[in-house]
């Protein structure tokens, strides 16, 4: 109904897209290419040091990307989806982190697996 009303009042010009654009326009194509190069060449720990969101700084996260974009380009996206889209554009995919029990003993795990193999082989 809105399209019909726009057409009736403004003619064909009333059907034109009047959106201003969104967060995707905040970084230029050159800046997005530079972000892609940075993400593939460095870890968060190398670029951010102890400020990285993940404790070891080995893998990129949305907060890490947001920090790099804000520090280098003075751009802050309103939505986390924009950062996820930027990750996708840079060739990164979403990976769910594994749950690792820090209190477990690797020696006990190895011993358990060894016993399990012995039981399965008999």
Q: Could you list some keywords that capture this structure?
A:
single chain; 6 helices; 122 residues
Describe the secondary-structure layout.
Blueprint: H1 2-10, H2 29-41, H3 44-48, H4 62-73, H5 80-89, H6 106-121
Outline of the structure:
The protein is mostly helical. 53% of the residues lie in helices and 0% in strands. The protein is built from 6 helices and no strands.
Along the chain, the helix and strand elements come as HHHHHH
Please give the count of helices: 6
Give the overall form.
Answer: elongated
**Percent helix among the residues?**
40-55%
If you average the pLDDT, what whole number results?
84
Walk me through the structure.
- The chain is mainly alpha-helical and 122 residues long.
- The protein has a domain at 24-96.
- Helices cover 53% and strands 0% of the residues.
- The protein has 6 helices and no strands.
- The longest helix has 16 residues, at 106-121.
- The mean pLDDT is 84.
